[in-house]
Design a protein that fits this description.
8-stranded parallel β-barrel; alpha/beta
Length: 307
C-alpha cells in the first residue's frame, strides 16, 4: 500500500439522469459547488462532464464546460479532469474539443470500443422528469461507444500538443493491450495513468478476482504505470477498498454510484469522498492534496491550463 492516495470525485457524468436522484448536479453552479465540497472532503481531482442546465441532458457545449471549470479553479486548486467520453452519441470531434480549447492537466481517454449498455435501467422507472431520459437510456441496446485505433491515435496527438495527461479508461482487459500498442507505437509515453472502470454492462464485472487480474495483466504488458479504480453501482466501496490495498488510487462520485450505502442515496459527491477517505485513513493511507496528486500523476501544473 502507498502512503498517499489520489481520490477523484466524478461529479455528474453522463449515465445517471435527473429522475434517478434529486441530488444529481446538473447546472454549472451545482457542479462547481459539488466539486468544491468534494475537495474539502479530501478529493484532489474532479472529473467533469457538462449538462444542459435546464434539462440535465449531457451536452458537448464547450461554453458550459468553460463556465464549470473556471468556476472550480476560482475557488480551489484541485486538478480538473475533463471528460472526452462526453455523452452517448457525441462525435469524436465534440468529445476532444475541450482538451484543445482549455488544455487541462488531465483528461479521460477511453482505451477502446465497448457495448456501453444502460437500457436495463429503463423498466425501473414508470415516470420521467424529462422526455429525453427514457430515449437516451433505451437507445443503448443498439449502441457501441466507439474508440477506434484511428481516433485513439488522433487523441494522442491532441493530448501531446496541449500537455494534457491521458487518464486511460479501461473497461475490459483487451484495452490494456490497446494501451501497450499506443506506447509501442510511440503515440504515448510511460508512465501511463490507467483507470479500471468496472461494472458497466458490456465491460468487465466488479470482483476482487477481476481487479487483481487487470492489475497483474497491466504489469505484464506495460510495466510502469499508476492506476485508479472506479466502479459503477453497489460494489463501489468494496472494490475501491481493494484498490487501496493493491496500492492504487480511487474514484467515487455520483457519476458512478448514487448511493452511500445500501438503501441510502448519497446527498452529495462529498459524502462519498468523505467515506472513502475514512476507509483509506483506517488503512494508514492519507488523501493526497492536489499538489501531491500532480506529483504522483506527473501533471504539468495548474499554471499551464487555458482556463
Amino acid at each position: 500500500m502507498k502512503e498517499k492516495v489520489v481520490i477523484t470525485a466524478a461529479i455528474t457524468g453522463a449515465i445517471h439522469t435527473p429522475t434517478m436522484s434529486d441530488h444529481l448536479p446538473v447546472t454549472p453552479a451545482q457542479i462547481i459547488e459539488e466539486a468544491v465540497r468534494s475537495y474539502e472532503a479530501g478529493a484532489a481531482v474532479c472529473h467533469i462532464h457538462a449538462r444542459d442546465p435546464q434539462t440535465g441532458m449531457p451536452v458537448p457545449d464547450v461554453s458550459v464546460m468553460k463556465e464549470i471549470i473556471t468556476g472550480i479553479k476560482s475557488r480551489c486548486d484541485m486538478v480538473v479532469c475533463i471528460t472526452t467520453g462526453g455523452g452517448l452519441g457525441m462525435s469524436v470531434e465534440q468529445r476532444v474539443a475541450p482538451v484543445a480549447l482549455y488544455r487541462p492537466e488531465l483528461a479521460s481517454f477511453n482505451a477502446g470500443s465497448i457495448n456501453f449498455a444502460l437500457f436495463p435501467i429503463v423498466p425501473r422507472y414508470k415516470e420521467w422528469k424529462f422526455d429525453w431520459e427514457k430515449q437516451y437510456l433505451g437507445m443503448t441496446e443498439d449502441f457501441i461507444f466507439a474508440n477506434t485505433f484511428k481516433s485513439m491515435r488522433e487523441y494522442c496527438a491532441v493530448f501531446a500538443e496541449n500537455g494534457t495527461k491521458p487518464e486511460f479508461e479501461v473497461y475490459d482487459s483487451g484495452m490494456i493491450n490497446n494501451i501497450a500498442f499506443l506506447i509501442q507505437s510511440g503515440y504515448v509515453s510511460k508512465p501511463v495513468y490507467i483507470q479500471f472502470v468496472m461494472g458497466v454492462l458490456g465491460g468487465i464485472t466488479p470482483s476482487c478476482e477481476n481487479l487483481l487480474f487487470l492489475v497483474e495483466y497491466a504489469k505484464k504488458l506495460i510495466g510502469d504505470f499508476e492506476f485508479s479504480v472506479c466502479v459503477a453501482g453497489r460494489a463501489q466501496f468494496p472494490i475501491c477498498t481493494q484498490a487501496l490495498l493493491l496500492g492504487g488510487n480511487v474514484r467515487v462520485g455520483l457519476e458512478d454510484n448514487l448511493y452511500l450505502e445500501k438503501g441510502r442515496k448519497a446527498k452529495s459527491n462529498a459524502e462519498q469522498v468523505a467515506k472513502i477517505a475514512r476507509i483509506a485513513e483506517e488503512l494508514g493511507i492519507s488523501p493526497a492534496t492536489p499538489d501531491e496528486a500532480r506529483q504522483i500523476l506527473g501533471l504539468k501544473g495548474i499554471g499551464q491550463v487555458n482556463f
